[in-house]
Design a protein that fits this description.
The structure holds two protein chains of two kinds.
Chain A lengths: L11 H8 L22 E12 L11 H7 L3 E6 L5 E7 L11 H18 L3 E7 L3 E8 L5 H9 L9 H11 L5 E6 L8 H9 L3 E8 L1 H4 L6 E6 L5 E5 L2 H24 L3 E6 L4 H11 L5
Parallel strand pairs in A: 3-4, 3-6, 6-7, 7-10
Antiparallel strand pairs in A: 1-2, 4-5, 8-9
Helix pairs in contact in A: 3-4, 3-9, 5-6
Chain B lengths: L1 H4 E3 L5 E3 L13 H20 L4 E5 L3 H11 L2 H31 L1 H4 L3 E7 L13 H14 L6 E7 L3 E8 L2 H9 L10 H12 L18 E6 L15 E6 L29 E10 L6 E10 L5 E10 L9 E10 L4 E9 L4 E8 L9 E6 L5 E6 L4 H7 L2 H6 E6 L7 H9 L4 E5 L10 E5 L12 E4 L3 E4 L19 E4 L7 E6 L2 E9 L2 E6 L19 H13 L17 E3 L7 E5 L6 E4 L6 E3 L6 E9 L2 E9 L4 H4 L21 E3 L2 E3 L1 E2 L9 H22 L4
Parallel strand pairs in B: 4-5, 4-7, 7-8, 8-34, 16-17, 16-18, 18-19, 19-25
Antiparallel strand pairs in B: 1-2, 5-6, 9-10, 10-13, 11-12, 11-14, 14-15, 20-22, 21-23, 23-24, 24-25, 26-29, 27-28, 27-30, 30-31, 32-33
Chain lengths: 297, 716
């Protein structure tokens, strides 16, 4: 399906642009090594941040007893946390990502490379993982911009293969990476099993989650005519359609509803959802869109 | 419905039975029709089997399935839509099949229609009351008919005037028909529908025709479409057979209809003739003034067909013979005032101009230009040179030197002995004499020139069988022959003995007796030999007959002088009509004469076997110049061709009853062919157009709609 000759993942001009950027986290960590930014996550630093209601299972050590004495209600004291930023990137390498010109996978690699580069430049810990039907061995914990070649090398060798199982992948991911941090999932999220369970695993890890949903233009504006038998490239599932204006209209409505529903689901849970197509210039995405969403500054 | 009707016919196609039954042959065999029936079946099968779904790989069928699920609620529409495509395809195929069957659909009326298109090209069709003229209008109508012809239809084209000519034989080739119709030129002559009908009837049955490879049915009667203005007499005693005539009348109808149409054009003022916008010269004659022989008189008659009086100036123009006929030189003019629908005579007096062409021209505007001109030819009176070889036949010489005969001929007498002299032999071989009369003597070899033998036979084997008969009785003589004009008293003639022989082939017997032909005329190398088997004197100068005492003797000799001596009075005594052969005489030495017609290049005409010159191309009215070499000089003469035809000049179209006249009252207005009265129409109904064409167009339309629905995903 992919006919585009893969362009170099990052061209020098783009790299200089990226250098001016810096990853920020909406949460402030206190890391084992001194990090360069604050996490918004309440943690165990010395700097008080806020109170919140106690709920069952909270650490009793953080209860503000003074407040309990005064108000006869249990509150927890929350502290700002400061730590190293773990920047995880999870790239979907299933066959469905091999569509489009350039392929969605290529686009995902470019986004992943750019984000990793920004992370490396800002001394964050970069973890790159990929998945198709299951989580695959990734590139763990590189740090410092001198390691950029490893990122590019890793991304270059990724090939589209197999079906996609987002749920299994995120479960493995959550087990593999117990720490907190920022996770960016780049996929088309066209998983028949749904995305909800998968993202819940990440939410449970209390991670700062960004999802980048990449679709090819063919999926957004299908240019099909006639009586067709559509074959799913991953599971060979077939759908017989007779293309007609109402069907195309219906398809677009379904797509909008799906993307809209996904976005709403994410927003409710504090997940940043970014929708893009493989024809949107990816540097624009990095420079403008992600900055808007607070992933880079 | 189709198959039960279909039967295989011997040609290999189908015969569909209709009422009335119409045999119809198709190039398509039953196999083809079966295959065709299979097409819609296949389409339906394909729809059920969905064989045509093209596999396309997509990243995920996830959203598609959802969309389908949503649409399944709407599945009725989905089915309808699918059925719409199916319906459209089936309709398209059905229409194509109908188009292929199309000729039968209208078979009861129009299968393989045969048309005979008869175009009137006579002089009156050049009238300009219909712009540009009637003939062009007729051609346009005929082209309309050709355009509306079906693919199985055949048509032939006949152009008729004085005579009919087949312009195109039966063909279905429309391009050829158009070309041929466009090539029809107006003739200047009168109209004879009978001629056209005979030609049409002869060719009407196309099964007799093997010309252009069309095998036509005999069942379908041909339609005879006559495009005319009705300017011809009713055709009597003619059976149309299976021809279905349809007359399309061209020309402006007369403004009023109170009068019955004149089927015969009377000479005088005739209110029965419907008016038309034309003034015509209907006669022109030349004569020598009886009192003053040096004066020539031209008598003419002009007729006004208009419903109002007309003033016209008749101009007399002179055309010299030594230059091509041009505008002419005005020598006289006269004003003619004509009453409404009346005729007037006019007269010109002029001194004898010698050989010259004269034209009378009417200066006024009307619908027909041709009959505003009339032509007359004045030649030079020519004397015949006659050599009489006789041994003192006094009666013969006297008869040939009367005052009248002396004007016509210059007679030289010699004795039979003189035939042997060199002078006479040379003169005979050089053709110096127009006519040589041999009285009871025959030359050793035939002379160059016409000859009259009295009581002798010309040299030659054919005459060796001559036998002597005694006291023959004259039974009959050819009163139509010019040599026997005014000869009445032959039965009274007593003959003692005569020579008779069976005339050679090609001869005309002049006088028949109980013992055999007494006189005949026979052609010889372009000249004529007249033979009379007896003479005045017999052996020993005994009287052989008393013919010389009868009036018919000098009359016969005078006729012979004129007929065989090439005498011309020079006053255009015979009327030449366009389209008819013109018989000309010239000096006996000329082998060919050059004729310069008013239009077109000059042509040479050779001497015919009868010693005359026959010119067949005198189709245009006007002055025809003749020239031939005579010795060193070039002799010139002229003859005139005129169409003095009141019927052609009467431009009122005939054939359509006026409005409100029906039943028996309308009969006089109808054109009768045989015993059939045919009402003309002003508007030719164009034949119905091919319907298969429309079916095919509809099929194409359906295919287009289907394509649009299919490709553009229109919402129903």
């Amino acid at each position: 399906m992919s006919t585009a000759t893969p362009s170099p993942l990052l061209d020098p001009e783009f790299l200089t642009k990226l250098e001016q950027l810096e990853l920020i986290s909406r949460k402030i960590f206190v890391g084992r090594m001194k990090g360069e930014r604050r996490s918004r996550r309440r943690g165990s630093s010395v700097e008080f941040a806020d109170h919140r209601n106690y709920s069952v299972g909270d650490d009793l050590r953080h209860i503000d007893w003074n407040v309990y004495g005064r108000l006869d209600k249990l509150f927890l004291k929350l502290f700002l946390e400061e730590e190293d930023l773990h920047f995880y990137t999870l790239v979907d390498t299933s066959l469905s990502m091999d569509f489009g010109d350039p392929t969605k996978l290529h686009y995902a690699k470019q986004v992943a490379a750019a984000l990793s580069f920004i992370g490396l430049v800002n001394h964050d810990r970069i973890v790159l993982d990929s998945f198709s039907s299951a989580l695959e061995p990734g590139l763990s914990s590189v740090r410092g911009r001198s390691q950029m070649w490893r990122v590019v090398q890793y991304l270059d060798q990724l090939q589209a293969h197999g079906g996609s199982d987002l749920t299994a992948a995120t479960r493995s991911f959550a087990i593999k990476h117990p720490g907190k941090g920022i996770v960016v999932v780049i996929s088309d999220f066209m998983d028949k099993r749904g995305y909800e369970d998968a993202l819940r695993y990440l939410l449970a890890r209390d991670m700062d989650i960004y999802v980048v949903q990449v679709l090819s233009r063919e999926e957004v504006e299908p240019e099909l005519t006639g009586d067709l038998r559509l074959v799913d490239c991953e599971d060979d599932d077939e759908a017989e359609i007779t293309v007609s204006a109402p069907l195309i209209k219906r398809y677009k409505e379904t797509l909008d509803a799906y993307v809209g529903g996904f976005r709403e689901w994410c927003t409710r849970r504090g997940i940043s959802h970014i929708f893009t197509t493989n024809h949107a210039p990816f540097d624009k995405l990095i420079l403008n869109y992600l900055r808007e969403r607070g992933l880079v500054k | 419905m189709l198959l039960p009707l279909a039967q295989a016919n011997p040609v290999g196609g189908l015969n569909l039975q209709f009422d009335p039954p119409v045999p119809w042959s198709s190039a398509w065999g039953p196999t083809f029709w079966m295959a065709l029936v299979g097409v819609p079946v296949t389409i339906i099968l394909l729809y059920f089997l969905k064989l045509r779904r093209k596999p396309v790989q997509v990243p995920s069928t996830f959203l598609w399935k959802r969309s389908m699920e949503d649409l399944h609620v709407n599945s009725l529409f989905q089915r309808l839509r699918r059925n719409l495509l199916l319906f459209l395809q089936l309709m398209a195929v059905l229409l194509v099949m109908l188009a292929l069957l199309g000729p039968q659909m209208k078979g009861s009326t129009r299968v393989g229609q045969r048309y005979v298109i008869a175009l009137d090209t006579s002089a009156s069709m050049s009238a300009t009351d219909v712009r540009p003229n009637r003939l062009d209008e007729a051609k346009a109508r005929a082209l309309e008919l050709v355009d509306s012809m079906g693919s199985n239809d055949l048509a032939m084209v006949i152009a008729f005037a004085e005579s009919a000519r087949v312009v195109s034989t039966y063909t279905g080739n429309k391009a050829q028909l158009r070309d041929r119709i466009a090539s029809v030129r107006p003739a200047r002559s009168g109209t004879s529908l009978r001629d056209a009908l005979e030609v049409a009837a002869g060719l009407a049955n196309p099964s007799k025709q093997f010309g252009e490879g069309e095998i036509a049915s005999e069942v379908q009667p041909p339609r005879l479409m006559i495009y005319t203005d009705g300017g011809f007499p009713d055709v009597e005693g003619f059976s149309l057979g299976n021809l279905i005539p349809e007359i399309v009348v061209l020309g402006e109808p007369p403004s009023e209809a109170q009068s019955t149409p004149g089927t015969t054009a009377e000479e005088a003022s005739d209110p029965g003739v419907p008016p038309s916008n034309n003034v015509a010269i209907l006669a022109l004659q030349t004569a020598r003034n009886e009192e003053r022989p040096d004066q020539i008189q031209l008598f003419g008659r002009v007729r006004n067909y208009r419903d109002e009086p007309a003033e016209a100036v008749a101009r007399l123009l002179r055309h010299e013979l030594d230059q091509p006929i041009g505008e002419g030189r005005l020598i006289d003019a006269i004003e003619v005032s004509l009453p409404a629908r009346g005729a007037r005579s006019f007269k010109f007096d002029l001194p004898d101009p010698g050989p010259v062409g004269l034209e009378v021209r009417l200066d006024l505007q009307d619908d027909l230009e041709q009959d505003n001109h009339a032509y007359a030819a004045i030649g030079r009176p020519r004397q015949a040179r006659v050599l009489v070889v006789t041994s003192g036949n006094r009666y013969l010489l006297n008869a040939m030197t009367t005052a009248t005969a002396g004007d016509a001929a210059e007679v030289v007498e010699i004795r039979p002995d003189d035939l042997e002299t060199d002078d006479i032999r040379r003169a005979l071989l050089a053709g110096l004499y127009d006519l040589i009369v041999f009285d009871r003597v025959a030359p050793a070899e035939p002379p160059v020139g016409n000859a009259l033998y009295l009581g002798a036979m010309p040299p030659g084997e054919a005459f060796d069988q001559a036998r002597l008969v005694e006291a023959p009785i004259v039974l009959d003589w050819d009163i139509g022959h010019p040599m026997l004009q005014y000869v009445r008293d032959l039965p009274l003639v007593l003959i003692r003995e005569a020579r008779v022989v069976d005339p050679p082939p090609g001869s005309t017997t002049l006088i028949e007796s109980d013992k055999g032909p007494l006189a005949f005329i026979t052609p010889r190398d372009g000249y004529s030999d007249a033979v009379v088997g007896f003479s005045i004197y017999g052996e020993e100068r005994a009287l052989n007959t008393d013919w010389h005492t009868k009036l018919s003797f000098p009359v016969f000799l005078y006729n012979t002088l004129r007929f065989l001596g090439n005498v011309e009075e020079g006053l255009g005594d015979q009327v030449q009509r366009p389209g008819q052969p013109v018989v000309l005489r010239a000096a006996p030495t000329a082998d060919a004469i050059t004729i310069d017609p008013p239009q077109g290049p000059p042509s040479d005409v050779g001497r015919s076997d009868l010693g005359t010159f026959v010119y067949n191309n005198a189709t245009e009215p006007g002055l025809y110049r003749l020239s031939w070499g005579s010795g060193d000089a070039i002799e010139r003469s002229v003859f005139a061709v005129n169409l003095f035809d009141p019927r052609e000049s009467n431009l009122a179209p005939r054939g359509v009853p006026p409005e409100g006249v029906t039943g028996r009252e309308a009969e006089p207005y109808l054109i009768k062919i045989g015993y059939t009265e045919v009402a003309g129409t002003r508007t030719s109904r164009p034949a119905r157009l091919d319907r298969w064409w429309w079916l095919a167009m509809a099929a194409l339309g359906f295919v287009l709609v289907e394509w649009y629905v299919y490709n553009r995903r229109v919402y129903i």
